[in-house]
Structure formats: C-alpha cells, structure tokens
Here is the input.
Amino acid sequence: MAVSIVMPALEMAQETGKIISWLKKEGDSIAKGEALAEIETDKVVLEIESPADGVLAGVKASAGDVVPVGQTIAWIVAPGEQPPVEAASAAPAARTMSATPSPAKVVERSVVAQGVVEQSRVSPKARRMAQELGVDLSKVTGTGPGGTISGEDVQRAAESQKAPQSAEPAALSSIARLMAERTTQSWTTAPHFFLVREIDASGLIAAREKHGKAVTHTDLLVALIARTLVKHPKMNASWTGAAIHLNPHVNISIAIAVKDGVVGAVIPNADTATLADISAKRQDLAERARAGRLHPPDVTGGTFTISNLGMFGVDAFSAIITPPQAAVLAVGRIADRVVPVDGQPAIRPILTMTLSSDHRVVDGAQAAAFLKDVAEALTLAQLQ
Here is the structure.
C-alpha cells in the first residue's frame, strides 16, 4: 500500500517548506527511517525520513521548489506498485518563487492590484502580519497556490515599504526571517519580566573537572536546571492563548548558533537523563544543527530554553522567550570577582544568570523561588 511523504509543519504559523535536495532518486529502494531529502522550513534546515520500507516513486517536487505544508511531495510504494494517480490532481502543484505565473494567476493578481482582495486569497498568517506591519493587502502580489497571499509576501511588501527605493533589498534566509517574526511576536505579546542572580560557580567548575572535558558547563546546566524544573511545574508550562498548560515532560531547548540565526535543539526528558546522555545528545544536536542535518523531533516539543553566551565572553544578557514556553534562562560567562566572604574580600568565580518569564504564566515570587533553587543547585552541582 502506497504511503505518502508530505511537507512537514513544525509549527502552526509555518506555511511552506523548500526542497533543498533529494538524497534518494525515484526508483530507489529505501528503508523506514532512512533519510529521503533535505528541506528548509521557516524554522530550520533538516532531513525528512522515509515513513515506510519500499521504493521512492511519484516525486512531485524538485530541488528549489517551495511547497505548501501538508502537500504530498512523493510516495513510498511496494516494488512494482504505482503511486496513486488521483494524488497528482488533488494536491496543488509544487511551486517555486521564481516560477512564471500562469495566465490564471495573472488574472488573479490583476484583481488584487485593483484593490479587490478575496478573503480566501489571503492566509490567516498573512492577514495578521499585514495588520501588525501596516501593509495594504490590495497592493501585495500573492505567490502562493492560486495566487494566495502568504506571510512571506506580506513580509517582502513591508520591507520594500521601509527600504529606500535606491537601496538593494537584503535577502533573508528562512531561519533569519522566522527569528525576526517570532521575536517580534514574543516581545509584543508576552509580558516579559526579568530576574538577575549572581552565584559562586566554584561548585560548577569542580563538577566539570570531576566529569572530564567531555562534559561542558552547558551539559551541567541542562541537567541541574531540568531537575529543578520538576519542583516548579509552572516554569515548565506553556501559554496556550487562553490558559496555562502544565507540560508532563521536561524537554530542555538549547539555543545553538547556526548560519543566519539560532536554532532551539531539544533534549527530551532531561530531568531523568544521565549527565553522560545529556552530553552526548547535546554534542550530536550541535554538530547536526551546524551541518543542517536536524530532524523535526530535534526542534519541537521544548518546554524551557537555556541560552548560554558565556563562551563568547558575555557577562550577562536578557533573552526573549520562545512561545509557547513560559521562560528562558540566559547564562553569562564565569569571571573572577572580588566578593565578601565571612566579612573579608576574596576572589571567587562568579556566574550571572538572567531569567526571562512570561507574567501570564508565572508571577515574580514563583520565578524568584525557581531562580533561588537553580542557584543553590548550581552552587552544589551534585550530579551522578
């Protein structure tokens, strides 16, 4: 029985994905779980895997094509089996941003130019973005299926309005574009508040020396903070838009710098994982993130984010929350400072942490109690 391969959606706001390359060609035999293609979504460049054993057939999109999420891009069939023919007519054809518009699209776009924008020709995301950015939809050319105006179309229109007519527009990658959109959405909708705490990092340094160079400060932070989150479920919660959802698992998202942006790679069930497992998982995610080899489960399901810029010499900073998460912990570098110890000046390695929290989910006292327990856990840094 034929199994369809569809363009995946990593989040509700995502509308399209771009085929970067096919790792298999039509007619190749493939095993379930084997990498099929590289795609670029609004969130990250990743690989999609085969959902079944069989033969790759009915490939509908080529490298460079931009395809709506949920659309079938190929089929996995049994040897000798043909892909379903009705799928070709039922699903809208894959599109490219540079494709020449059909006569039908030319007519539709001319209607838009005259100021008549059909409700069905504008995606919900595009309509929301147009209101936020002050874009007149009647002046936007839709490049989506059937001439639909997408969020990308609105973003380009907004940028062209702001840019000087003589200047060349700067192209944004999907990741950079999403970062701009998501951070703006988070900053303007989530009521952030910030708590800062300095701790003596002597215990953290000793713990890293004990476990060896394979374990990083970030690994220790993930393990200790994940265990602390178990005692503070609201800090591990999500805002649904109307209510607070208490997540049943502690999935730590680590901010990893990649080309043109930052990716939140997720370590699932970090509260029960061993330090060795966390270290191995973090290293694997970092390597694959920078190589563009992440899979959808690697970047979804995060419940709390840690952003560590200490390795760049940053003393302290405030981070923007990743929706729908309730908080993010920003970690600066460990630096020797003169501090009072038993009434006398002493030099100690000090680490500064800044907790950004969503006031719709937690209040100041709850966030302060969590940060206090995090500071105590990092000071002791007792892990197996």
Notes: The longest strand covers residues 327-341. Residues 87-120 have pLDDT under 50 and may be disordered. The chain has three domains: 3-90, 103-173, 190-380. The two ends are 48 Å apart (CA to CA).
